Each structure stands twice: as C-alpha cells, then as structure tokens.
Amino acid sequence: MEFLSALLFVTIMTVGGILSCWVLFTNKHSRINQIFFVVSLTILFWNIFGFLAYRSTDESLSLLYLRLNYFAVCLYFVSFYYFTIYFPVTSQKRYIIADTLVTTVGVGLAIVALITEYVIKKVTIGGPVVMRVETGFLGNLFYVLTLLLTGYVLYELIKKYRYLDKINQSKIQYFIVGIFLYAGFNIIFNIAFFYLIRDNYKYTQLGDFSAIFFLGFAAYAVMKKGLFDIRVIATETAVTVLSVVLIVRVFVSTSAMEWLFNSLIWILATYGGYVMIRSVKLEIKRRDEVQRLAKKVEEANVHLKELDEIKDNFMSMASHELNTPIAAIEGYLSMILDEKLAGELNPKMKKYLDSVYISSKRLAALVRDLLNVSRIESNRIHLVYEESQIEDLINQAVMEVGSKVREANHTLTFEKPETKLPKTWCDMTRITETVINILGNAIKYTDPGGKITIAAEKKDSDILISVRDNGRGIPAEKRDKVFQKFSQVDVLRDEVKGTGLGMYISKNLIELHKGKIWFESAGEGKGTTFFFTLPILDKKPEDPHEGEGPVLQLK
C-alpha cells in the first residue's frame, strides 16, 4: 500500500513537472505562461511538503514540513489570483485594492504559517491515529479565506466569460472544470474528513493529489489552439511512468538473468514509447497543417463572397445607369425610323439606322438580363401578383416574338386547351418574360422553316406549360449547363448570339413562384421540349410589403 502511494505521488509530480515546464518553454515571454509556471511550482511544493510531513517519524521535522505545506498553499492562492487576472486575456478593469489585499493577506498568512504557531501549533505522531495536527487560532480562518478567494476568482472568470469570443470562452470552461475538481477533492478530504475523522492528516493526501486535475485542465486551457496537445502530454506521461517502473525493476533484480531480462524489457519499452511519442507529434503537426489550410480556404471563401457582393452591386448600379441612355437612344431612333420625324431617309442611311436600332434593342435586353440576375442573386426580386388567365399571357408572348418567327420562316402554333384553364395568381410580367425566353431559345436553335408548338394544360393542382421544337436538340454533355449563368448550348459552332442568362433567369423566376422547370431532349438534332409549372392559387398570396408586392427569397 505504501509503495503504491509513493508510486502515485511520483507519477503525479512527474506529470505536473512536465506540464509546467511544457507550458513555460512553449512561450517563455508570455505573462500567462510565466504565471502558470509559478502556480504549478506552488502546487508541486504543496504536495511534496504534505507528502513528507505525513511520512516523517520526527515530530519537529513533520511540523516543519506541514508549515512549509501551508506556506506553499498561501503562495499558491496569491499566484492563482494573478493567473486569473491575465487568463485567458487581461481583465478589462484592475482593482488596486483587491490586488493589494490578496497579496498582503496571502503573503502575510504564508509567513505566519511558516514561523508561528497561529496556523499549525503542534503535530503528534503515533497512537491509533497515525498523525494528529493541532491548529492555532488562525487555522479555521485559513480555510475560510481560501474558500472566499476561490469564490472571488470564479466570479471574475464568469464576468470575463460574458464578453469573450467562443475560443476564449471554451478556455474558461476547461479552467473552471479543473478548479471544481481540485476544490471538490480538497473540500472532501482536506476539510470534511479532517473534521469528521478528527486530526487524521492521512486523508489530506488524496485532496493534494487532485492537483493533477487542475494542472491538466489549466494547462490545456492556456495552450488551447497553441502547440500544446493533451495527447502528447498523456503519451509522454505514460511512457515516463512506465520507464520509471521498469527501471526500478532493473535495480531490484535478484539475479543476473533477471537483471538482463528486466534491462531488455526497459530498453524495448522506452524505445517503443519514444517512437509512439514521435508518431503522435507528427500526427498533431499534420492535423495543425490541415487546420491551417482549412482556415486559409475559409478566409478565401469569405473574400470571394465579398467580391461577389461587390460585383452584384456594380452590376445593379451599372444596369440602372445604362437604362436611361439606352431608352433615349431607342426612343429617338424609333421616332426617326417609324414616325419619320427627320423626313425621308435615303436607303443607305436607313440601313445603318436600322442596324443601330436593332443593336440598341439587343443592348437593352442585355442590361435587363443583367439587372434581373443582380436582383435574383441579392434576393431583391419583387413579384407583383395579379389574377391572370394563362392563355392571355401566352398570346401576349407569341405576339411579341412574332417578328422573329417570321424572319426565321418558322411555324409557331399555340395549342389551346379544350376547356378554359382556371385563373391563378402570378406576376404577369415575369411569367410572360419566361415564356418569351423559352420561345426565343426555340427560335434561335431551330433551323429556318422549323416548327414550334406551345401548349398549356391543367395538371393536378398546377398549370403545365410546354414549348416543343424540332430544332438542334441539346447534346448530353451540355444538359447540366442549360440553367447556368452565361451558358449556351454551343455558341462557337452555332454562332447564336445571346448572353446565356435567359434560362438562368427563367428558372429562378419559376422557382420564386413555387413552380418547377425542366426540359426533355432525345439528343442532338432531335428537338427539345421545355416544361414549367405554376401552382393554381385561388387567392392572392399574403403580402408582407403591401403595395410593393411580396418579396420572395431564393431557396
């Protein structure tokens, strides 16, 4: 039993020494690391003198050790107080009165405990109780003051916790766990047992040994996100303890053969422990590298989001600013060409102005598409719901693309449903725009003389609209890109002019209406059919922004 107690004591002292030195030498210039080292030393001396006091057979020597034990305890609480001032960050407010009071009382009580009888008066060894301690009139005050100081330190830590970030808050959490474990064991074994089993100093060792909990959690809290890793400490500690036990067996060997065998076991175990420690450190290094790279990727993503937002804002501003001059150009050209306000034009001049007019319309469409994309990506699309007859919207779209159909010599047919479709609520302008986009694609990607058919029908609780053509179709490798921004089926080969934004805008507009959009194509040269649905609504959706139209967010 005595051997196990001694082995436990040596193990705890070894672990505590490794922890304190590790933290200090990781960053010798850090104030918090320096103070932690001092706190660790006071705890280690506290344990050492307590251990020696219990095992000494000389009463005067035991009394000296016990007074040194109390001396170390007092200095521990002073250093512990200053540790919490700087941990995990320096306190926003420093109270000179509190600093002076704690330092004066702590150091003063330490000196009193060491050189007077006011704290520890007498130690008696022998009898049924192995050791009896007679305290002076300040003995009880000692425990009261330590409990009050512990409570004050916890109060200060909780105040800090409220304004710190999550990383520092987690450090405080680890630290407080260590405090409660340490304080709990000391209250049970150093105070409660002392009074329940009168003057039996034997059990106080269990309270002293619990210091390892405090040192472990505190060290991890100090070095969290730094070079410290609890697995390294645990591995090194286990290897050290194992090596110490095995080397002891070497020295207590009773024969040459036993000595040789134990020596071989010690060498193999120590070398194996060294290899294991090195592998653990290597794993931690690799993990830290991965975390560092992940942090860089995260920072890059944040930067890209910022750039994307800047791009969206620029597109929105540029689109708004371009609308006005483009509208003016279109208006003047229309008056010159259609209303002949400048008189009769010669054929060459009319040809050039027609070309300018067509280009201005294309530019206006491009600006409109860019503005729609900007609104979609910033969730600023306003849908103004009106009760609509879908057949009327389709007729309007067919009329608007009529000139393009005639230019391409296509046949465009609207297959109206046998019975009138039910009315529904939708944004008439946006749905008409969607139908025009789909019809426009069918016109562009169908060779001259093609056939295009648009149809509408009631499908369960939705209205299904389809646009079918006998054009070039969509190759299998291009299908995933149809609804992407700035994407066209085959711009270089087909020489089809466009922005590649129409289907992206259409998809988002339909989804904002809670509908679906998709296409079917048997392959290249076999035509394409686009479908989209709109839910049948018998009443206008609730409008949180009355007069503006509901603002629907993208999924």
Summary, kept brief:
With 555 residues, the protein is of the alpha+beta class.
Helices, strands, pairings?
Elements: H1 2-26, H2 31-55, H3 59-86, H4 96-115, E1 120-125, E2 131-135, H5 139-161, H6 166-196, H7 204-209, H8 211-223, H9 230-251, H10 256-337, H11 347-377, E3 386-388, H12 390-400, H13 402-407, E4 411-415, E5 424-426, H14 428-444, E6 451-459, E7 462-469, H15 491-494, H16 502-512, E8 517-521, E9 528-535
Parallel strand pairs: 4-6
Antiparallel strand pairs: 1-2, 3-5, 6-7, 7-9, 8-9
Descriptive report:
- By secondary structure, the protein is α+β, with helices and mostly antiparallel strands.
- It has three domains: 2-228, Rhopdopsin 7-helix transmembrane proteins; 235-380; 386-535, 2-Layer Sandwich (Heat Shock Protein 90), CATH 3.30.565.10.
- Helices cover 64% and strands 9% of the residues.
- The protein has 16 helices and nine strands.
- The strands form three sheets. It has a five-stranded mixed β-sheet. It has a two-stranded antiparallel sheet with strand order 1-2.
- The longest helix has 82 residues, at 256-337.
- Mean pLDDT is 78; it is low at 489-496 and 548-555.
